[in-house]
Amino acid sequence: MLTDAIKAVLKRGALVAAANWQVVVIQFVAESAFKGLLVVPALGAAFLVALIVGGEVTDFLDRRLTGVLAAVVAALHRHPGALAGYLAGLLVVVVGGSVLMFVAKAGTVRVLVEAERAAGPIERPPLRARETWTASRFTLERFGEGIDRYKGRFVRLGLLLLAVYAAAGLAYLAGVAALHRWTAALGLPIAGSMLAAVTALALAALITVVNLFYLLAQILVVALDCGVRRALGHLTPLVRREWRLLGGVFLVMLVVVLLATAASILATGALGFVGFVPVVGLAMLPLQLLAWLARGLLFQFLGLTALGAYARVLRGAMHA
User: Fold this and answer.
1) DSSP state letter for 79
2) What is the pTM of this model?
3) CA geometry: angle at 141 spanning 13 and 226, to 5°?
4) Which residues contact 178 (CB under 8 A, 6 or more apart)?
5) Which of 11, 125, 214, 308 lies at a CB distance of 3.0 to 4.6 Å from 16, suitable for a disulfide?
């Protein structure tokens, strides 16, 4: 149920994010750079497979990024040396790009936490632009100071997150393999596929909850100006104190993101369908670019809205 308290913190988070729109752009650029870095090993992999195991480069480049990586790993399975070298290079790119994201997030969280703390009751009606812009705290100096002050702590917290991802992924693969062996021995391959799908949903739910606690820990690191261990120590009692409000904000934002994702998929499919028309397809390129830009900025805004809302809830819990 969308209570008045949930509406108030979400509205405050959205207004704080809007007043500091610069960090929305910065986060969008950082995420786009990270995705761009992932294209490099995909392109290199296509040429590597073409040289080692044969085939056409275009056969790989016609696939999606995840499809290219999966096809490369499968193709290099019989060449352990090449596979190990490729996976090592991919790991360097992923970790390096992730560190870039962690560092940029340090400045973003610092700006938004300070903006939420300093803003007046901007969520109360009537909504006026003058009062809303009092929540603006972005400056390049403040953003840079946030990076300098918190980058080490954010990188450690981020590497911990990557370790959790890796452990969850390995556990998922081991579980799926065990399920397939068990159901194959019983002669129920369809049951194995169904159980694998349920396991994938459970993994997605687990990752979503882990991301929530990761975001809350980032906020506490800045709000309390403490280390990662102390922030994690404070996290559990604060969540217990405000679990209803935090859970409500989390569920509302999850529904909003799912709806935005569905709308984005439909819009992308429609633009892609029109793009098959030769002449009209060229005219659609600027529109597709604008759609990509709008989608990226929208999802960043939604994420930072949630960050501002969580910062408000945690601040209230710490002073309760």
Assistant:
1) -
2) 0.85
3) 65
4) none
5) 308
Both tokens of 54, joined, read 């044969």
pLDDT tens digits for 126-153? 888 888 888 899 999 999 999 999 999 9
Say which residue the tokens 């590597």 belong to. 48
Please give the Cα distance from 106 to 54 (Å, whole number). 45
Residue (of 307, 155, 315) closest to 228 by Cα position: 155
Residue with tokens 């990076």, as numbered in its chain: 147
Cα(106)–Cα(149) distance, integer angstroms? 8
Cα 130 from chain centroid (whole Å): 32
Q: How far apart are CA 236 and CA 195, in angstroms?
A: 32
DSSP 76: G
Alpha helices in 119-188 (DSSP H): 129-132, 140-186
Instruction: Calculate the CA dihedral of residues 177, 181, 183, 184 and round it to 10 degrees.
Output: 130
